[in-house]
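quick one before i forget lol
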Amino acid sequence: MLRQSGRMIAALLMIVMPAFAANGRQLQTKQALGQVVRASSATIGGTAVPSGGTIATGDIMSTATGGGALVEFSAGNQVELGENSIVTFRGTPDHVLVTVDHGSITVRAAVPGAVVAETLLCRVASTGGTSASFSVTAPAGSTTAEIKSLKGSIDVTETGTSRTHPVAQGVTWTCPAAPAAQTREAGAPGAGEQAGQAPVPTASKHSDTGLLVLLIGGGVAGGIAATAAGGGKGGGGGGPASPSAP
């Protein structure tokens, strides 16, 4: 019977282990996007951001009063955060999406369209065949955001209506940052972005381990119970067991 219990446990492991392997692959899907060139009074998830640190997809960076940060991506594309700002980074190293919850950022896009910035109801991208830079300012509690083209031309799209407005160099465009009495939780998918683009939630290792222990424990308990039942048939288990047939 103990041999049979061992076979039961092996069968359970064959079922459970592939699921653990898939879960481990999910935990490693957070992609690196860029590198922090400099940072002051900046945090990600409550942890101070060091200069030279890595920014990954799904990271939410916050800056305090007097703080700021400069993040560089591939091809020299950059995003600079001002003080009292909260932004979320998504996308790939070549196509970065920066969602401004509130505060201010300056985007320097060496490659047109490589860095897209958005508020709740506006999306901004550089256009044309040359590099461009622009700023996005969305004060906390405000229902508008100011978009300014600092170099080159940009397009501002109102995601609520899909209307696109070309903005020339030196021009400031004001668009809704959020509907009145509506706020967005930091890190939530931006307007026009599918929920599937959000970072993969981190699975709990503890719950998976508990499941494995429960399954193995159940198999062992079943084997022991079966062994005990078999002993009971031999006269209460007090006498020697009958020899098994070869």
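fyi The longest strand covers residues 95-109.
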